[in-house]
Amino acid sequence: MIPALPNPDSTLKTDILSKTQITLNDLEPLEPNKLRAYRIGDFAYPSVTSILSYVMTPDLKKWAAKNSALAVARAQRQAIKDGVKLTQKQLVEIGCYEPTRLMKLSQVRGVAVHQYAEDFFNNLNPEPLVPELQGYIDGFLKWFEYYPTTPIMQEEVLYSHKYKFAGRMDYYGLMNGKRVLIDFKTANFPHADWGLQLAAYKQCLVDLGYPVDECFILHLKSKGFYEFIQFNDSFDDFLSVRKVFAWKAKAEHPEFEFAL
After folding, report:
1. CA-CA distance, 197 to 47, in Å (whole number)?
2. What is the pLDDT of residue 8?
3. Which of 21, 96, 204, 224 has the least C-beta neighbours within 10 A?
4. Average pLDDT over residues 235-255
5. What is the spatial distance between Cα 112 and Cα 217, in angstroms, rounded to a whole number?
């Protein structure tokens, strides 16, 4: 049986849905993020996003360092207000756990917004999300009003036996008479590898007989705004990263978990 991805624990859900701050008493060790893989028949292929994140780490390392430092600074300020003295060990733990905590919260947010979009396109009258996530939905609805689209395929797992990778695409449909591939993002800032992700999915669609005229990222913002960004990265560039991934994984033996 393929193991399901672990659900974020209740503490993390509470944090994103009600903005409740995680206190030192709530702080528990978090397992390092594993790379994601897909079981395709008798084969196991790394996900497109894991390939890219594992190789293209400079931005991620900078992000992790920044947010670890901010978390420690916040904890120190709060401790001073509360008249509590934090030990060096506690501060180190807070800094070490913060990047993983934020990534788990991002996963919760992303799943909720993606589910809303899928239900919307399937005419299922999606329920409103909690107020903290409503800005992303407002941006999505503004985008759709300006860029009406008709879905052909949603949330499908794509893969390549030839190049040994897999991934779940968000949306493939018709927009202004063109066949478009769109990925929805709720990250705080654009990532340089988004275009490579689209290039990988596009190649899989084309191999399956689904032409792709244009590729876009719909970058949704928490304040109700959006960016609709077109990308034209080449599949050859993605393959270059795929080769580096194979070399690096062979040397470092990262852990994987399977996605349904």
Report:
1. 10
2. 34
3. 21
4. 95
5. 17
CA 129 to chain centre: 19
Please calculate the CA angle 139-141-142 and round it to the nearest 5 degrees: 65
**What residues does 218 pair with on adjacent strands?**
184, 228
Cβ pair 95, 67 in contact under 8 A: no
CA atoms within 13 Å, Cβ hemisphere of 84: 13
Q: What does DSSP say about strands 35-40 and 226-231: parallel, antiparallel, or unpaired?
A: unpaired
Q: Which of the four pLDDT bands, split at 50, 70 and 90, describes residue 184?
A: very high
- Assess whether pLDDT exceeds 50 at residue 238: yes
Structure confidence at residue 23 (pLDDT): 39
Contact 172/159 with Cβ under 8 angstroms? no
DSSP 182-242: EEEE--SS--TTHHHHHHHHHHHHHHTT---SEEEEEEE-TTS-EEEEEE---HHHHHHHH
- Amino acid type, 146: Y
pLDDT of residue 223: 93
